[in-house]
Amino acid sequence: MGQPSIVSQMSEKVNSRSGKSYLPTIGIECHVQLSTKTKLFSEVDNDARGKSPNSCVSPVDYGLPGMLPRLNKEAAYYAVRAGLALNAKINLESRFDRKHYFYPDLPKGYQITQMFHPIIGEGFVELPDGTKIRIEHAHLEEDAGKLSHENGYSLVDLNRAGTPLVEIVSQPDIHSAEHARDYCKELWRLMTYAEVTFGDLYNGNMRFDVNISVAEEGATELGTRAEVKNLNSFRSVERAAKYEIERQIKLIENGEAVKQETRGWSDASGETTAQRSKEMAQDYRYMPEPDVPPVRLSKEVVEVERAKLPKMPADYRELFGGLIATDTLEVLLDYPLLMQKLAEVADNSGTGAVKIANLFSSVLLAEENASLLNDELPSREQLLKLVEMLEENQLSSTGGKEVFLKFFDPEMHYKNTETIAKELGVVQENDLAALEAIVDSMLAKPETKKAQDDYRAGQEKVLGFLVGQVMKESRGKANPSSVQEILRKKLQ
Amino acid sequence: MEINQETVAHLAELSNFSLSEEEGKRLESDLAGIIDYISQLDELNTEGIEPTYQVFEMENVWRPDQIEPQEADREELLSLTKEVRNNQIKVPKVL
C-alpha cells in the first residue's frame, strides 16, 4: 500500500471575513448497495427497483422470532472485490455483530454489521489530482427498510431491508468541499468498475454521510464535528460540505460552539438543519451476532476476485494520461464499458484511441446523445475501421461523426463501418483523376467564368465559392482540401 | 455495574418499551440480580483471550446467491402489523 501524500494545508485553508484562516477536516462514510441476486441474509430478490412495496421480503427481513439469517456467500466475495478496488488489505477472518437501535425501518431491533472485525482493512483511494485519501476500513452490513413520510404518519417498505451494504469509512484526510466531491465520485467509479453495485445514485445505491469540522489554522486539535447524513449525489456532497464549513466558521467567529450533531441537507433550500442529537456509541449495545458464524476466506478466493477486477480508473489514467486531454479523460472515465472499448482500440492504434475518445466526448456527451451510452457500444472492428478511414481521408471529420452516430442506430449498428459510410454517402472522393474530372466539368460551366476571372485577378476568397461548386457537383463526397489544391493548380 | 431506576428507564426508552412504575422496579431488581450473577465471570483472568463469537466453532455457514420462493407471502407478513396502507406498514410519524 502506498503512503498517503501530506495534504498541503496552505491550499486548503478558508479565510473568514475577520481575516482568520480555518482548515476544514472531512471524513466520509459511504454505503454501497451490492448488486448480488439475493439479500445478505435471506434468499429473496435483492433488486427491488420498480417493484411493489414489501414484495421482496422474507420472514428473516421481517425479523420474525426464530428466523435464522444465512449469509450470502457471493456478498462476501463482492466485498472482497470492493476491498481490492480500494487498494485495501482483505481480512481473511471477519465477524458479525449486532447493533441495536429502535426504529421502524428495522423490524428486528438490531442491524447485523461488522463492528470489530470488518472484512476490509486499511486502504486508500487516489483522486484524479493525485491526492490519496486513506480508507480506515470497510465492512459488510445489512441495509434497513425505506421510510416515506406522509402527513401525520410514515410508511415502511422492507424491500430494501437486508440488502447487502459495504460501508466504506475514510480517514479524515479530506480538506475541501471539492475534494469531498471528488472522493465520492472516485468511490462511485471504483465500485462500478469493480461491478459490485449498480451504482444508481438516484435510487440510493450509494449514499454518503459527511463528517465535517473546522479548526483555526495552527490549532492542535480538530474542531467539533457535525455529520450531514444521507447525501445521494456528488453535487449535494460538495454543496453540503461548503455550506457546513461556512456555517461552522461563522459560529466560531461569533463566539458560539459547534454542536456535535446529525444534520440533514436540503437540496432545495441549500442548507443543513439539525436532526436528532446523535445517540452515544454505547447505546447501540453491540454484541457478537450468535446467528452468523465468522467468515474465513482463503487466499485463493482473494486472488480469484482480484483476477475479476477489470482495468481500473488509475490504469486508464496511466494508459491515456499523455494522449487524451485530462478534462476529456475524466469525463469518459464515468463510463467503464467505453473505457474498455478505448483500451481495445489503443491496443492497435494509440492515435486512433485519441480520435475515438474525442468522438465519444464531442458526439455522445452532448446532452441529447448521452443516453446512447446505455446502448450497446460499437465493436472494436467498427471503431478501428473508422479510425483508418479518418486517417486516410476517406472520411471528413464531419462524415466521421455521422458514421459514428449511426453505430448507435439500432438499424445500422450491426453493419460494418464502410457500409454505413457508403449508405450515408459520406465517403470522400480521393481519386485525384476523378476529382480533376469534376473540377474540369465545373470550370467548363459558363456561370463559373466570372469567378475564375476574379480569382486570377487576385481575389483569393472566390476560391471558396469554386470549391463549394465542386463539392456540390460531387454531392459532398470530394475531399475539400484536395479540391482546393487542384483548383489552385488549374487557375494559375 | 449499578442498576437503578435511571438505567432501567434509559434501556426501556432505547427499546421503545413503556414500563409501569411497578414493572420498572421489578426489572431493576431482576436486572441487578442477573448482572450480579454474571459478574462472577469477572473473577476470571481473560487477558489475551479472544471473545467467543461462536460456541460450536462453526465458520462459513453460507448459502449460494440464488433466489428461493418464500413460504410466507406479503399478505401474511403484512397481516402481522397493526395498520397497512398501500401495501406498506403504517407507523406513527418519525423523523
Spell out the blueprint of helices and strands.
The complex is a heterodimer of chains A (492) and B (95).
Chain A: H1 9-12, E1 14-15, E2 21-33, H2 59-62, E3 71-72, H3 73-85, E4 93-94, E5 97-100, E6 110-113, E7 123-126, E8 132-142, E9 146-149, E10 153-157, E11 164-170, H4 177-193, E12 206-216, E13 226-231, H5 234-253, E14 262-266, E15 271-274, E16 287-288, E17 295-296, H6 299-308, H7 313-320, H8 326-332, H9 336-348, H10 350-364, H11 380-391, H12 397-406, H13 417-424, H14 432-443, H15 449-456, H16 462-473, H17 480-490
Parallel strand pairs in A: 13-14
Antiparallel strand pairs in A: 1-2, 2-11, 2-12, 4-17, 5-6, 5-16, 7-8, 8-11, 9-10, 12-13, 14-15
Helix pairs in contact in A: 3-6, 4-5, 8-10, 9-10, 10-11, 11-12, 12-13, 14-17, 15-16, 16-17
Chain B: H1 5-14, H2 21-38, E1 62-63, H3 74-78, E2 84-85, E3 88-92
Antiparallel strand pairs in B: 2-3
Helix pairs in contact in B: 1-2
